[in-house]
Amino acid sequence: MNIAIDHKSAIPFHKQIEDVLRALIDSGDYDNGELFPKEVDISNRLAVSRNTVRQAINTLVSEGLLARKKGVGTTVPKRKIGTKLSEWHSFTQEMNNKGIPFKNYKVDLSQQKADEQLASLLNIEEGKEVNQLVRVRGDQESPFVYFISWFHPKVQFDVNEKFDKPLYDIIEEQTSIVLTKSAEELTAMLADNKLASLLEVEEGSPILFRKRIVSDPGGRVIEINEGYYRADRFTYQIEINK
Questions:
Q1: How far does the signal peptide extend, from start to end residue (predicted)?
Q2: Are residues 70 and 97 in the same domain?
Q3: Kindly report the CA angle at 133 between 127 and 136, in degrees rounded to 5?
Q4: Which pick of 29, 70, 166, 201 has the fewest CB atoms within 10 Å?
């Protein structure tokens, strides 16, 4: 633990300690569950009181950068992946834009007969076959999102498609359909047995559910997507200008 503060600086000790601890968090040394340095060790190393160290740590806990568990200690939680509601992209584009390597844990493309609700949303006849795409995706450590998509019958995919490129790029390349609008609805829920198994969380864990309806320039619905995100790994950010 190579850390230090300036005891002669006008900057309060707890603020300097916050900066020191942020640097430790960003170092990546504690990303795999290793325990963060103890208050007493930081206090001794910096020659400040434990209360001052605790004040700095409490600030970082409130920001979600550190997590405390009684009887265990302080750890660095997995970073949440954020996406803004002011813009929309495919999952692949989001991960590529953030420089996060991802993988497909499950990809399943099948045909399904549209029920009354699906037929109404896609403006097609009930019982007409549509493509259903199921994907479980995440980073190199674990899955954190489960997607189910249904597509307008005009969307037909190559039988050898691996879906490792941005979905909307694939649709445009293979069908010449350009998607320009997304209507989204967000809901909080708890993982049932199926979601818990797919996303490798405990049953009852918090899940962010997002329903997305994607349309072409003419307003025709092309994709209906349901996404189930692990709440400990993903967050939606809203920016509003007055």
A1: none
A2: no
A3: 145
A4: 70
Q: For residue 205, give every residue at least 6 positions away whose Cβ sits within 8 Å of its Cβ, in sequence order, or none.
A: 190, 191, 196, 199, 230, 231, 232
d(CA 168, CA 226): 15
Residues 64 and 91 in one domain: no
Structure tokens at 185: 């609805």
159 and 56 in a common domain:
no
User: What mean pLDDT is predicted for residues 152-180?
Assistant: 90
pLDDT band at 159 (very low <50, low <70, confident <90, very high): confident
Nearest C-alpha neighbor of 129 from the set 109, 102, 99: 109
Q: Which residues lie across from 206 on neighbouring strands?
A: 190
First to last CA, the chain: 45
